[in-house]
Amino acid sequence: MAEADRPNWFARIDESEDEDFYSVPRRVVHIDDGAIAAAGEIYASRIAEGSKILDLMSSWRSHLPERMHPSHVTGLGMNREEMEDNTALNEIVVHNVNRNPRLPFPDQSFDAAVMTVSVQYLTNPIALFADTARVLRPGGCFITTFSNRMFPTKAVALWRGSSEENRVEIVKQYFAQSGAFENIEVIDMSHRNGPPSDPIWGVLGYKPR
Q1: 86-89 — which CB contacts under 8 Å span 24+ positions?
Q2: Quick one: which of 30, 62, 69, 99 is 20 to 30 A from 40 by CA?
Q3: Which helix (H) or strand (E) holds 204?
Q4: For residue 2, what are the contacts with CB-CB under 8 A and spacing of at least 6?
Q5: Average pLDDT for consecutive 10-residue bins of the chain (209 residues)?
């Protein structure tokens, strides 16, 4: 990822303000029930029960299985009305991570962070990944899950122009180039038993202890 190329890589078809695009609540799910369940399985497999979780780019659903029993979930997103419908959230924060990747939380505030089917919209991902590590406690994990679904006008050019396989590598590079995570792992749930369903991948890393 050469620095000179980044403005083109992170350009979007619709460069209007994100606040305008997300001003109207969209109470829809962007992946089907099978993919939602698969994303939840990824979270439950890596996040300990009773964790304090940051749900980045949150919406009206967090896809955290009820059996996880987190101690607290903070949703950070663009539309307060949507997040107010999210029964998983204990706290709501409206914040545009593309405008300001510095998260409005103290150091070491959370045990884990998740980002569900939203990584494709990040225009400054490496800075955000680095700051996500800042707000995690040592040993905390950051999990991104994604499919092949998107709002194409708001997805960055790098994502739109890549294959599904390369998108996994892109997210791995976000973790690696942030310089803030270790033990980067890929969980491929794109092919699952049962009825046909949207593919899901998870990429995660851990803040060093």
Answers
A1: 86/58, 86/59, 86/60, 86/61, 86/62, 88/55, 88/61, 88/62, 88/64, 89/55, 89/58, 89/62
A2: 99
A3: strand 201-206
A4: none
A5: 62 81 67 92 96 96 92 96 95 97 98 97 97 98 92 89 93 97 96 84 98
